[in-house]
Amino acid sequence: MQWLLIALGGAAGTLLRYGLAVGTEKWVSGERLPFPVATFAANVLGSFLLGAILVWGEGRTIAGVDARLVLGTGAMGGFTTYSSFDIETLKLFEAGHTGRALLYVGATVLVCLLSGWAGLRLGRALTG
Hints:
Elements: H1 2-27, H2 37-56, E1 61-62, E2 65-66, H3 67-79, H4 82-94, H5 98-127
Antiparallel strand pairs: 1-2
Helix pairs in contact: 1-2, 1-3, 2-3, 2-5, 4-5
């Protein structure tokens, strides 16, 4: 049951990630953004949610399975996008957009860390 619920969480996270990508493209009228907004947003939001899930989920279960496994490993594992981040960064470098690539790396690391910290604080406040 544990494996199935983690896989279902991963599928849900993947669908949410796809929805974010589609929604972002529609938001900009179908044009490609010069900055990978959807991946950045998924990683920031995923960092925040994972932080909250790790605290909130402690001692909680979903159908008898640790909620942190289903929502953290499964859903957030499917939602966040390090592999996309990696490829998009390399493409920016290859296209000669060194400044934009460095901004993307720096912003992703800093904002995701801050977002994860905020998620931990929210999780503690909700369980506190």
